[in-house]
Amino acid sequence: MTVDYKKVGLKSGLEIHQQLNTKEKLFCSCEPELFKDDPEFTFLRILRPTQSELGQVDSAALFEFQKGTSVLYEATNKTACLVEMDEEPPHGLNSEAVEISLITALMMKMKPVDEIHVMRKTVIDGSNTTGFQRTSVVALNGAIEIKGKKVGIQQISLEEDAARKTGTKGQVINYRIDRLGIPLIEVTTAPDIFTPQEAQETALAIGTILRATRRVRRGLGTIRQDLNVSIRDGALIEIKGVQELDLVAQIVENEVLRQLKLLEIRDELKKRGVTEQDIKDDFVDVTSVFKQTSCKVIANAITQNKIVLAVKLPCFDGLLKKELAPGMRLGAEMAGMARFWGRVGGIFHTDEMPAYGVTVEELNRLGKLLEKQPQDAVVFVADTPENAKDALNAVICRARIALQGVPEETRAANIDGTTKYMRPRPGAARMYPETDVPPIQITKEYVNELCNRLPELPEQLMKRLKAEYGLNQKLTKQIVNSEYIDLFETLARQTKVSATVIAVAFTETLTALKREGVNVDAISDDQFTQLFKLIGSGKAVKESIPDVLTWLAKHEDEPAEKALKSLGLGMLTQKELEKIIDEVLDKNSEFIEVRGQGAFGALMGMVMKKTRGRAKAQVVNKVLKQKLEHHEA
Fold first, then answer.
1. How confident is the model at residue 429 (pLDDT cuts 50, 70, 90)?
2. Are residues 213 and 164 in the same domain?
3. Which pLDDT tens digit goes with each residue over 235-260?
4. Is 159 helix (H, G, I), strand (E, B) or coil?
5. Cβ–Cβ < 8 Å for 356, 286
């Protein structure tokens, strides 16, 4: 489906969250690192929503509380303390993190605030032990240029990162609090983005400026993009947790399609004469219909003394299976709300039947019990009476919303570019002052001092890299936009390896490996350094880079030299190389007699195939020429 984004009134904004590379966490002196081993201690918490100073309760916070979950926190003494456990007040703001935030703001031509005040933002999904996230505005009203167009930067905030979720068991969620409190910068754009491609280009530009500070973390999970997307007659949708930059445009495209299709469904329901009063919460126990069912999910539920509860949606026939965007349907939206509000595994509906072992006969009996007409749809769920009722209440709520069009909500990004229902959009009641952290005054003298030592802007950096390292335009842009610019410059200066070879490895090679499913984020800086030092000293060749990096990605903390040994990529001795060349020449003696020196190219290819990763091409070239001349003689 081709969409005229100007005609539909697309408006989008970004919130870029990037971890800062500081020595300590934001409000304590703990190491801002993640631990891999078992936790040294755990503690259990149940979080509850509270009223703001205005007597309001945030809807998103209430939503999380009503899910009835508790949280088990895991920690080590090295990466967490009483501050993360909410047993001790936070210490003062990390001055290093404040400086990095202000430098970033000044690079985006923003105006720093006179005083930094820390606020509390209500979050009770368990990712913060306190039930809130601490955040503070650092600068306002800036802009960056994207292909000649100015995109406003509304504000930059400094905040603490959340704990990381490690699993769920029943009603208990597990979080590790090692990440909790790591300094995080949030860059918020104005809604100046009017196409999906602009959104992706803006995210790239902001990411490039952040990396240009040389003081941000890199690797999986250190940066994420949140998107705000709306269209005319639609709604403002917040999409959380876009991990891959390449997905930004696709997610915006899919959200526009989703909203357009929801508006079509709204109009279709109006044509069919459906009103909110028609959509009733008349739930019917239909367990008897499925007593002998072949549907494993339903049969297992009945075995556990659960029930099957159903509800009729008048005039919804065919609409639940309607595709909103690739991989997204109205039925799936209802299922998402049912899972969160009803704590169920999912729902069944007649638009997708017969399927999953549910037969035509069972559908007919179901239809009779609910007095279903051909134009109606039926949704049913198998669970405990309480959960099933809550789930169908969520379905009814979503069906009524379908009459209005697009509901305002927060959605989560999936790795395939689709999104799913996450929770209601938060309101203004979630933000209030933090009384335990004193404000920090930002003086003009301090700002002027920072202005005098700002890092190179991306344009300046590209110009210098081309001149200093002889990189071409394409490769220069790729390395500047990569996460490895610092390591690239270090290795280009400290090793004898060509800067072009290093740049290609950090851009094209890593991109290709990532597409093949290799976890390149697991490769440490130390392992990269070891590999390029081996190449520079003649103990490895550049052709071995893809194979060695693939091995290192699977063997954390193992040395690059061990990778060469395990892969059989140790450099050949002169004697071993000569033996291989002699074997190739003997095997192709007739070919050499016919072609003479003209056989060199083909022979070179044969030898390189046998020695790739274990001998330098120039050495092979030299020895082969000598051997070929001798062979002819």
1. low
2. yes
3. 999 999 998 888 999 999 999 999 99
4. strand
5. no
Q: Do 19 and 158 fall into the same domain?
A: yes
Distance CA 370, CA 347 (A): 17
Our measurement of the distance from residue 480's CA atom to the centroid of its chain's CA atoms, rounded to an integer in Å, reads 21
Instruction: Tell me the per-residue pLDDT of 76-85, one tens digit each, with 9 for 90 and over.
Output: 999 999 999 9
Q: Which residues pair with 151 in a beta bridge?
A: 144
SS3 255: helix
**Residue 134 and residue 176 in one domain:** yes
Which amino acid would we find at residue 606?
M
pLDDT digits (tens, 9 = 90+) for 156-178: 999 999 999 998 887 788 999 99
Q: What does the alpha-carbon distance between residue 360 and residue 366 come to, in Å, rounded to a whole number?
A: 10
User: Tokens 């406003």 — which residue?
Assistant: 152
Check residue 64 and give its pLDDT. 54
- 0.90 exceeded by the pTM? no
Instruction: Let me know: does 350 contact 363? Beta carbons within 8 Å.
Output: yes
Do 262 and 397 lie in a common domain?
A: no
Q: Is 328 helix (H, G, I), strand (E, B) or coil?
A: strand
Q: What is the DSSP letter of 216?
A: B
Counting Cβ atoms within 10 Å, is residue 254 exposed (0-12), middle (13-18) or buried (19+)? buried
Same domain, 251 and 373: no
Q: Looking at the domain assignment, is residue 11 inside a domain?
A: yes
Q: How far apart are CA 3 and CA 1, in angstroms?
A: 6
For 169, how many CA atoms within 13 A lie in the half-sphere containing its CB?
4
CA distance 225 to 241: 6
Say whether both 122 and 261 belong to one domain: yes
DSSP 8-state code for residue 454: P
CB 452 within 8 A of CB 442: no
- The residue length of the chain stands at 633
Name the domain count of the chain: 4
Q: For residue 148, what are the contacts with CB-CB under 8 A and spacing of at least 6?
A: none
Structure tokens at 534: 């081996």
Judge whether 440 and 271 are in contact, CB under 8 Å.
no
Domain final position from 247, 269, 291 = 269
Q: Which of 523, 543, 567 is a domain's end point?
A: 567
Q: How far is 62 from 378, CA to CA, in rounded Å? A: 29
pLDDT tens-digit map of 504-538: 999 999 999 999 999 998 999 999 999 999 999 88
Alpha-carbon Rg for the chain, nearest whole angstrom, is 30
Task: Please report, for the domain that includes residue 607, its CATH number.
Answer: 1.10.10.410
pLDDT (tens digit per residue) in 180-190? 999 999 999 99
Domain residues for the domain of 530 are 458-567
- Tell me the C-alpha to C-alpha distance, in Å, between residue 527 and each of 216, 303, 520, 616: 20, 54, 11, 22
Contacts of 542 (CB under 8 A, 6+ apart): 497, 501, 535
